[in-house]
What does this fold into?
Amino acid sequence: MDAVPIALATTDTDEIVETVVRLAPSFGGVNLEDISAPRCFEIERKLQERLDIPVFHDDQHGTAIVTLAALRNAAKLTGRTLGELRGVISGAGAAGVAIAKFLLEAGLGDVCVADRKGIVSRDREDLTDVKREIAELTNKAGLSGSLESALAGADVFIGVSGGTVPEEAVAAMAPNAFVFAMANPNPEVHPDVAHKYAAVVATGRSDYPNQINNVLAFPGIFAGALQVRASRITEGMKIAAPTPSRTWSATSWPPTA
It folds into this structure.
């Protein structure tokens, strides 16, 4: 894969969109990076509407794809299915929102998302439009309160927020739990602590075992899309990308959305 990093001296949504649209004829695809929520959702949507090449926000979908890959492998290792698992995501930004939607689509039993004020639930009156949507889609158990309370009995912790999760909250998770503490450079739960209680431990760092990082996903996603001249990266392609023991070819990629 050949790529050219382009940094823009603006944070204005419309300026970013117009700049990328004008640059797009020189490229086969656009990988958006380090654009915060909620601007990232609008920018990606507008670019997808205006361009006939793949547009992919790495912080959202790349992170979601590698998280699903890790979760599938951890479930297989411990003899469970995704449908049996309840997850808790720390962080309701671009990555947290995308991961929650993606894991539910892939068949996760239940997941709740927590921000700085606690669990994103329907009874909260301070939610943005994006968080209201997440509250409707997630948290089948109807939990409310703090992140720590949500972790009691949970099977999966996914950290994409920074901060620190108390050891006692990790200890309260279900047996054979998974701790994916992906904040960089400081994981929400240090691996030494997580290993005391969890069956599978992963971070976003390359100097610890079991790295979960979006850099592991987007080169392959774009390679597949460009090989078959796909005009966009569909939900079906994202779900298929981390499927174990599957080889994709020009005749089988992209899968149906």
